Amino acid sequence: MILTHKKGASFYQFESLAQYPEIRHGIFTRHFGFSTGPFESLNVSFGLGDKAAHVKANRQVIARAIGSNQLVYAQQIHDNQIGILDIKNLACKEVAKPALGTVDALVTNASGKFLTIQLADCQSILLYDAIRRVVANIHSGWRSSIKNIAGQTVEAMEKHFKCQPADIVAAIGPSLGPCCAEFVNYRKEIPKIFWPYKTVNDHFNFWAISRDQLTRAGVLQENIEFSNICTRCNTEIFFSYRGEGHTGRFASVIGLNM
Fold it and tell me: What is the pLDDT of residues 26-75, one digit of tens each?
């Protein structure tokens, strides 16, 4: 990953995605924002106890750095709903219930719409099909992961935009790594089919789970890039719910700029 400083913000970029000039993306660090206390400093989420004015100012930091005020946020619920923003109508259509807005993945073919996911240990999985010019941003926590939100988002790209999975480039952002993804109650929480991904001391490798879900959906393994950065091990850079408890959320952004 490439660390970039731009317009008062710091963010990481994936080499596999940075080669495409028609898109912009970034995994923003927790630095260079306005929030204080446990939200220090670039918290982009409301409803956590941070001051609304700080969150609004922080979102403007993200907007300036990405070069657009059209950041599309979702009401994330740790499920497998997918929202589609289609250039034909420039309005989100729900792929699965419940109501519009409560989704954990966003897909668009519309230029200028930058899909933004809020994170503190969950994976952001960025997808791009350069042939069909479609981007996606997935919020994949463990609950969404066991519901295969990654594979279902690839399927949504196929269904709605005629994407071919072999054309899709995928990037898995900083998130809870196998070093820290401990599930002491995994026998109750995680279906048995995922137990082969358990390592030592009841830890699970959800990066590998996402990789396999993507490849089963048709994404080529050589087209998947990993950050290999654990958020809990790097709380000086990213917010981590597991590491800090009461904390903020950092932003992952991707969109077509032309």
Answer: 999 999 999 999 999 999 999 999 999 999 999 999 999 999 999 999 89
Domain CATH code at residue 191: 3.60.140.10
DSSP symbol at 32? S
195-204: Cβ within 8 A, 24+ apart: 203/178, 203/179, 204/142, 204/178
Helices (H) and strands (E) in the chain, counts: 7, 13
pLDDT tens-digit profile of 6-17? 999 999 999 999
Identify the bridge partners of residue 203 per DSSP, sorted by sequence position.
182
Query: Letter for the amino acid at 113?
Result: K
Instruction: Write out the residue range of the structural domain in which residue 111 sits.
Output: 2-256
- Of the candidates 10, 14, 11, the one whose C-alpha atom is nearest the C-alpha of residue 1 is 14
Residue in 179, 184, 171 with CA at minimum distance from that of residue 232: 179
Given this model, what pLDDT does residue 129 score?
98
The chain-wide mean pLDDT, for the chain, equals: 94
CA distances 241 to 11, 80, 158, 193, 223, Å, are 20, 20, 33, 26, 29
Query: pLDDT by residue (tens digit) across 145-196?
Result: 999 999 999 999 999 999 999 999 999 999 999 999 999 999 999 999 999 9
Sign of CA dihedral 96, 143, 231, 167: negative
Tell me 46's DSSP state: S
Q: Sign (positive/negative) of CA torsion 100, 13, 233, 185?
A: positive
DSSP state string for 111-147: BT-EEEEEESSSEEEEEEETTTTEEEEEEE-HHHHHT
pLDDT at 89: 72
Q: How many domains does the chain have?
A: 1
Residue 88's pLDDT is: 82
Structure tokens at 103: 């989704």
